[in-house]
Amino acid sequence: MNRFTKRFAGTALAAAALTLGCNREMKISHLPYPDTRRDTTVVDDYHGTRVADPYRWLEDDNSAETAAWVEAENAVTRGYLDRLPARQAIYDRLTTLYDYAKEGAPERQGDYYYYFYNDGLQNQSALWRKRSLTAEGELFLDPNTLADDGTAALADVSFSDDGRWCAYAVAEAGSDWVTIRVLDTETGRRTQDEIAWVKFSGATWAPDSKGFYYSAYDAPEKSVYSSKNEYQKVYYHRLGTAQADDRLVYGDPAHPLRYFSGWESDDGRWLFVLASEGTSGSELLYRPAGNSNERFRTLLAGFDHDYAPVDCRDDKLYVVTNDSAANYRLARIDLRNPRGLETVIAEHPDNLLEAVATGGGYLWAKYLCDAQNRIYKYDYEGNRQADVPLPAIGSVAGFGCKDKEQEIFFSLNTFTAPPAIYRYDIPTGRTTRYRTPQTAYDTERYVTEQIFFTSTDGERVPMFVSHRRDLTLDGTNPCYLYGYGGFQINITPAFKPEYILFMEQGGVVVNVNLRGGSEYGERWHEAGMLGRKQQVFDDFIAAAEFLIAERYTSREKLAIAGGSNGGLLVGACEVQRPDLFAVCLPAVGVMDMLRYHRFTIGWGWATEYGTSDDAEQFRTLYAYSPLHNIREGVCYPATLVTTGDHDDRVVPAHSFKFAATLQRAQACDAPVLIRIERNAGHGAGKPLSKRIAESADCYAFLFHNTGTEYKPVTAEAQGRSER
User: Which residues contact 81 (CB under 8 A, 6 or more apart)?
Assistant: First the structure.
């Protein structure tokens, strides 16, 4: 149900003014901003520092006043965006660029190969299957039929070991809440099994295929989308029974702010629970699977290190960990005599061990070397068997299979072309191309280079720079600078049709590997978290200054963008250096660093940010919190804030309060707008139609406010390409 259902009925809207500037480009003025009520009585005392929060009322996502404000802000925003002369042409070109067949890597389950497929402009990719690689595919599960507007998405799909049952988790309107349902793969019919109030979990099947484990919360007592989520529990669901009868496997009433997930070893001998207190750091618990009366014991104590389970074989658990290895190592521990971790694959001195998967009786180690992937084959004793040949520099999505399989399918991603699918033959070690997408442009016209710049503290930081091969870098090019910088998230090559649209017009696309990610291991992550978070913003600002100094762009042509923690990045840099950017595009950002932990699962980010409950951490947060560092009388860049009304991860109140405060403070005519998407959340599962519309708005806003003329695409650029 949409939280903002009441219509705004009030202020008459004046026509937007059109004036001709001295550069002969059309200047479009926005309608007057809504007269947002300020409640000056709301003041909090943080360790002796009094902090006003006049827009606290916007945190109430169920109030009529908030609904009216949302309606009024959207009216102002649409009144501006719909008058941008290039908006429709950009929308049409994006639609063309997105209109190509998208096929995922196939995976063998039972008697079928299953794969996701989108014939072009479907809102959601559907799950297809076929009996052999050369057979014709058949539609198995189509999420497009679950909601008329395409807002129901598959958040997770898992198969029982025998391939008979398929459990799928459905998220609606962009929410993190999912409902798990089950299909019989023999008949294609849904069973009566249905599991509600699941969040950050799917179904993990027991090896006997009779049921699965999942993690859930109690039903929210207040707001479904903003109430604090506490007391996650692990349950076991037996097929054919009601959720009310599911067995509680693990809960911890003493620690309400922990995440838990549970699973059984493939041989059915051991039951594990992985616990975490935030987005990094974990603890592993275990007990024999056959004895439900035995208590869980701590196998690997938390929460100073990460433990990512890989496999359990011969009563030994294999985990990827940064315990005694900043770049991670593969280790194992004997469950019958757990005296500590034994190294299987040692830490690499320079490269990050990003993940280890199993398949065909081997271990497949995926490394990150300067934010690009390499794959190596190992046996279970840690002996390196082979290097997997990759056909191009890029990032690999998924690499593994079942033990009985002898082939691995994977996708290779770059910035300039859609991912192609490859097949790796385990016995011969040969890589062959399986599927190549066709595109509505010539992929060879574009190039990506990796360059390095020096940040404020002397650290060498990498960035990927993509543009047309024939582009002259003379400082006149518009630039789209994207960053994230947190939560161990790595920025690696990834394709977006929007990048092609921008580069067609002479734009330069830059993705920077800020600290806070783990591109160079835990050292890189820790250099951008907690009390060192400001370094992330310094890195981003240094990247912008480098691009201007090296004549990739200019201040008047530079746009910065980021989402979620990246929205925080954009907001913080905007208020710290408003002189440096022409356009700011913060999406679903964490803008109120003093109250973020009071909503939904925001408490889980405390390991990354710290919280205002601690006096020293409060001082750090208050110093960079975007909301609290907006200054009256400053000319801020043209800003388009984007969020979704069903975002229950970073609640939209962050964006609401930031936009209202920035609108009041703005001292020049650069627009400050907020675009609030209906029936949308944090981003995952957003239907393609909504993604294209939002991108068209953002890029039209970017082009107009950098003074960049959108030109019709030439026939040469529109020529279809196959790589």
Answer: 87, 673, 675, 697, 700, 701
Collapse the DSSP code of 18 into the 3-class scheme (helix H, G, I; strand E, B; otherwise coil) and give the result: strand
Beta strands in 335-391 (DSSP E): 342-345, 352-359, 362-369, 372-378, 384-388
H/E run at residue 204: strand 204-205
**pLDDT band per the 50, 70, 90 thresholds, residue 3:** very low
Which residues are CB-neighbours of 526 under 8 A, at least 6 positions away? 532
- Which amino acid does the sequence have at 639? T
Residue 491 · residue 519 · CB < 8 Å: yes
CB atoms within 10 A of CB 64: 12
Q: How far apart are CA 467 and CA 541, in angstroms?
A: 21
Q: Which two tokens stand for residue 695?
A: 């991108």
- For 515-612, strand residue ranges (E) read 558-563, 583-587
Check: CB of residue 356 under 8 Å from CB of residue 310: yes
Asked whether 17 and 11 are in contact (CB, 8 A), the reply is: no
66 close to 110: Cβ distance less than 8 angstroms: no
DSSP label of 275: E
Q: What angle do CA 654, 658, 661 make, to 5 degrees?
A: 145
Indicate the angle between helix axes 565-576 and 534-549, nearest 10 degrees: 70
At 189, phi and psi to the nearest 5? Answer: -95, 150
| Phi (first) and psi of residue 643, to 5 degrees | -155, 175
Per residue in 14-36, pLDDT (tens digit) is 333 333 333 334 567 788 999 99
Distance CA 340, CA 145 (A): 50
Contacts of 339 (CB under 8 A, 6+ apart): none
CA-to-CA distance for 62 and 645, rounded, in angstroms?
11
- Model confidence over 41-57: pLDDT tens digits? 999 999 999 999 999 99
Write phi, then psi, for 565 (nearest 5 degrees): -60, -30
Tokens coding 293: 């009366």
Catalytic residues: 564, 682
Tokens of 165: 């049952």
